Records
---
Amino acid sequence: QVQLVESGGGLVQAGGSLRLSCAASGRTFSTYVMGWFRQAPGKEREFVATINWNGGRIYYTDSVKGRFTISRDNPKNTMYLQMNSLKPEDTAVYYCAARKGAFRAWENQADEYDYWGQGTQVTVSS
């Protein structure tokens, strides 16, 4: 089992940057495929990015490609999401999630993930 805590959200102007962190408890962080999801008001939770156990395989949803970078530091039990060139439509609560199993280089579904953080708010003003 793993517990996840996100941090780093906030209010930023369009074009700005934020770095989200996801701190994991336990000794097995490196065995999990990790992902970032987001949920805007009135919308379903949507996939943002996923990373395999050692960071060697990564997949992004199209709307964030070239702007967001997912990474992980296994010795620190932490995953990151560097968000650049932020747009108002990126406004959402961002969640990190963990699951076992094989890496999937396509749009991941929320119900594929077993463990979730509490979320961190990202607001991008125009």
---
Amino acid sequence: QVQLVESGGGLVQAGGSLRLSCAASGRTYSTYAMAWFRRAPGKEREFVAGITWSGAVTRYSDSVKGRFTLSRDNAKNTVYLQMNSLKPEDTAAYYCAADFVPPNIVRSTESSYDYWGQGTQVTVSS
């Protein structure tokens, strides 16, 4: 079992920045990819960014590429999503997720992830 706790959400003006954190506890001795998904009101949950266990490979959705940066610190069992140049369309509940896979794998499909955090709200005002 893995427990994931997100933090760092809030209200920000368009063009601003936020950094989300996700701390993992429990089965952290195994290798696992981490990802962020988001769900905007009235929409399906979508992949935002993912990172391999090693941190060597990251994947981003086209909508956030160049604005968001995902990193991880395995010594702290924590991943960080730096979000810059935020837009109103980034408003959503953001969820981190863990996927126990080999260290060079990161997937973008929601069904691949077995463990989820409770979510943190990001609201971008225009």
---
Amino acid sequence: QVQLVESGGGLVQAGGSLRLTCAVSGPSFSAYVMGWFRQAPGMEREFLSVISRSGGSTYYADSVKGRFTISRDNAKNTVSLQMNSLKPEDTAVYYCAASWFRGTWPAGYDVYDEYDYWGQGTQVTVSS
């Protein structure tokens, strides 16, 4: 059984930074592509970023490109999302997710339905 637990959310002022971490328990962490999504109230879950199994490839949504950085540590079974220059519109619940998906990078890796396991989410609130 794979379990994902996010941490690091909180309240931050606009322009500030937060670092989210997702700890993954269960076997074969390095076999999963890992992604980050977010969901604001009344909105659909939005793809943010994905990192390949080795960590050698990353892909970002345009909305966070240049501000957010995804990384993973396969020795520690963790994936992180460094968020800089935060804006009020970044306010949402942030989720990490694990996927068995194998496709032609990065096509398909931004699709919610391709992810097999999800964390419970962590709230990020950015005040203006």
